[in-house]
Design goal:
Elements: H1 3-19, H2 23-30, E1 35-37, H3 38-45, H4 51-63, E2 67-71, E3 84-88, H5 107-111
Antiparallel strand pairs: 1-3, 2-3
Amino acid sequence: MSFLEKLRQAQSELAEGEADPLRKKVEAVVRGMEAISTVALLDLLGMPKTTGNGRRLAPTMRALGFIQIKSRRFEPGGWRDSVTRGWARPIRGAGRRGVTVKPSHSISSIDEPAQQKDACHVQ
């Protein structure tokens, strides 16, 4: 590798780091995760839990393919109206729109009368 190629590679790495300084840290933290709350992510990164830091993470998480979520689950020690915000990987890929799903039953089995009753029904 020539000196000019090494120089160009170093410049591209430097420009990449300046464009998104958190990307490498966030990639390392969320590797293998399907979902994570914003508070937990900030905690794992060692950043203060502020709105500004959450907003700084948003473009990085979107670039990594995560989508925003808002969950109203009742958490231990939380109130019924508490909201947990975070990030999740989409279940469906971007190129899978328009996928049709066949029903698990056939139409003929719906029209036929039931020959036997369920075991849970008592006569």
